[in-house]
Amino acid sequence: MGFLAALCIFFVGYRLYKKSTEDNNVDNTTTYKRTKKKEYKPPVITCDYCGSKVDTAIYDRCPNCGATYDLDSEWINRFENAQENDDYDFSQYSNTSNNSGRSKANSLKKKKSFSAKLVILIIVVALVIFVVVPLWVYLKDGYNYYSDDKYRTDEMLNEYSYEDYQLESYSVEGDGQILNYFVDGDKNQNVTVTLKNIYKDHSNFKDGYKLELEVVNNSDTNVKIILSSHTFNDFTDYNGYLYASDNYKKHSTVTVYEDFSNVAKSEIKNIYFDKIEVLTLDSDSIYECDNVVKLTTTSTIDITYDLSRYHIIYSNDYVDIYSAYDYVQDTNSHINYDEGLKYYIVNKTEDLTFDVDTDGYLGQGKSLYTYGMYDTVSIPGTTLLTSDVYSYDDYFTDVKNKELYISFNFKCRENPIESFSTGYIDLKTEYWRSEG
After folding, report:
1. Which domain holds residue 416?
2. What is the pTM of this model?
3. Positive/negative CA dihedral, 90, 95, 100, 101
4. Are residues 157 and 276 in the same domain?
5. pLDDT tens across 33-76, in order?
6. Which helix (H) or strand (E) holds 217?
7. Cα dihedral sign for 395, 396, 398, 402?
8. Which helix (H) or strand (E) holds 34?
9. How far is C-alpha 300 from the chain's CA centre?
10. Would 360 disulfide with which of 48, 325, 370, 375, CB 3.0-4.6 Å?
11. Where is the domain boundary, 92, 116, 140?
């Protein structure tokens, strides 16, 4: 871009300079011819005192009698007639120059005009290149005017000195494919994401994992890919999750690493991706996967969960909902239930996925604006531990000793007919039980 800009400025500047030079040459030639034609020749006059001829080009006084001719009428008349011609400068009559003073001034003026034009041209071209063009691109592409460093590229496993991620002994079963989207149905243009390996951190700083993902954008479009997973080993915990939203350049293949922590069990036997989406760089959706994608590994760990110490507060053919109240640890003075209550939701189905939300808490017939359940998904055959569900309402204090109700809504992704609501559950009676 800079080279082309410099070349453009040089070319236009050269053309202006050449045109200015040609104009000056024409002007100088015309002036010279006009001046030459009207060239002043000092006259030969007659001395008023002795009558001798005086060549004023040679003598400044009469060579015969020595009289000056400054006041000679013939000399004075010749001089005044010449001065009436606007094309002459007074210097001509002193025999110092036969060039036009006005022509010099015009030439100087034109040179200054050319310099000013060239400076203005350079400023205009610079503004166009460095201001107008980037602004146009910004307005055209919006806030997503990305340079190459805004795209994910090949990454290192242990990026920082304190990391010590090591390859796990178990491996991914099958092809490990999370996403395979064909752009506009074209089989020659697809976007894929594949899980290649799983690594565990063996440092003393954190206890987490990294997934090695191969992302291939074989399309003609730069894209953004969103991946979300809250469920590992058939257990969903919204305090630990994987979430990625990144840009990938067209016609590129890169290896990236995504880290996460708070995984139930000591290995990873399976992973569920509950949100997979491909978007433009302006975040306009291109494709969104309707189904949860499950990947398994060769790990042989037991991933069953014992909830016998918790009390069921709701049950039907689809789910069991447990109070997450732990009466064994209830003596812990640091537990503040006013910060929210948690719930276990066990999905007993084999093939029904539910998006779960709540109508909120109800206390003394008053609805409480409730927070804490965002994009919550109940996956077939898994156990879900919700995040803290709470309210900022003044009533939501000392909740263990107050009347409080809550309802949950389950929207089925596969078949809307299977959707249901629990109705309001009496938490004062059911949540705080001291037995399973």
Report:
1. 312-430
2. 0.66
3. negative
4. yes
5. 555 555 556 778 888 778 778 887 777 788 878 778 777 777 77
6. strand 208-217
7. positive
8. helix 2-37
9. 44
10. 370
11. 116
